[in-house]
Amino acid sequence: MKKRIFSHLSLFLSVLFVAVSVLTALPTATQAATPPVTWDNGSLTATLNSSKQIFQANIGKNSGKWYWEVTIDNDTADTSAVRVFVGISNLAKNKVVRYNGNTGKIHATTIKPYGTTFNVKDVISVALDADNNTIEFFKNKVSQGVYSYTADVTNPVYAEIAVGTVSGTHTLTANFGTSKFINSIPAGYAPYDENAMLIGASTLKATAGDAKVDLTWSTATNATSYNVKRATATGGPYTNVATNVTGNTYYTDTTAVNGTPYFYVVTGLNGTTEGAVSNEVTATPIAAVKPNEQATLDVTIDKEKVKVGEDFIADLSLKKATNIYAEDFVVNYDSTLMEYLGATEVPGYKVYNETNDKKGTLRFIVASQGKNYGISADTVFLKLKFKAIAVGTGKVDSLSGRIADTDNEYDIAPANALEDTILIEKPAFLDVNRSGSYTLLDLSIDAFYFGQNAADTDKTLHDADQTEDAKVGDDDLVYIVGQILTNPDYTPNK
User: Fold this and answer.
1) Cross-strand partners of 306
2) pTM for this structure?
3) Full DSSP string of 331-369
4) What is the pLDDT of residues 240-268, one digit of tens each?
5) Are 329 and 363 in contact (CB under 8 A)?
6) Whose C-alpha in 84, 112, 222, 452 is 20 to 30 A from the C-alpha of 282?
7) How far apart are CA 20 and CA 126, in angstroms?
């Protein structure tokens, strides 16, 4: 009986011991899944100064795809072809795969040719595929090739650095993912330190303003704040214009100078870890255009070409204007090719002054007739009538102008005072007496017919109605005189 009780008691104590052991082994709610990855000296930087010295990562990898980088900080013995190894080993450190910086060879079960030697300041990147037992080393972003370690070491494997026969002091620093990598992580790989945050890239947009650039960007994965960087050339170098921007994904660069092209990127931050660079955007701030400072005084002739004696209209209009109620402007026309016949007012706009120097220059002062006629769009406010009097290409040109709203006056910029041209062709017939040359005789014949209807002239001998307006008048005589003056065969012209 006592023996049976003792057996039960022994069984109970055994179960209790196992239960307590299991509970003790379970992590608490505040325990990290894994500690930060360092070398086994507790640091990311290690100095090798003893023969066959090895530093191994404190965490090994049994599966998965992992990436890390090692920078050759210093070597007192060699500045080129440094005598250090970068690679992996088993926990016992007696089975290894190492990339030899002095020879470029792989040291494993056997020594094999592999890549190039590496030097001080070089960055050796490592891509470990523990699922397929391969390792790939990169020297300054350039792959040295993929090596299969199936026959050399079994998982779990540990990142390591080592030195052979010591000569001098060798200092190396690892980045297991707690800061931005120099190289791009190969697709499908993760930082060796599983606790390291992979901070994604944002998509950046820029809008230029007056002495400012507004920047907005998308949220970057795992980012808690952002750095905004600017350059004056595409691709950089960039300098920070804002650091640790938190609480929003926008920033206004108020230090931008109008007329200067700028190039921007943004990076996400998590603690001291900086993430990937966003797309680059460019913007050139420009001074804001105030209302009516870009107003245009335009001239539009209603025909492309006319014959001598025909009339045409030139419309005067304002464009890019806002709430304009008064205009004062000067128009020039070629008085040797066209005659000014007068102005026609447009409903809602009245001419309060018209100055005509009779030599091709007109000045008008026009005002709107009430608040409903303020000009805020492309608006014709006056029509000028001309008659073609000589052959050539004629021009009607708005030389200058001043406009006003109810607060300010604005001068039309010279570049915004526009013009239009018209081709003036000669009539279908020749000179009055059909001799083929305009002379004083042609003028004399038309002077004889002056005041008559064209139908009452002797059309069998003469083309007295030179301007084709059904009567003989001043316009015909003016045209004839113009042709005489340009006739090189007319004796007084020689």
Assistant:
1) 424
2) 0.42
3) EEE-TTTEEEEEEEEPTTEEEEEEEE-SSSEEEEEEEES
4) 999 999 989 999 999 999 999 999 999 99
5) yes
6) 222
7) 42
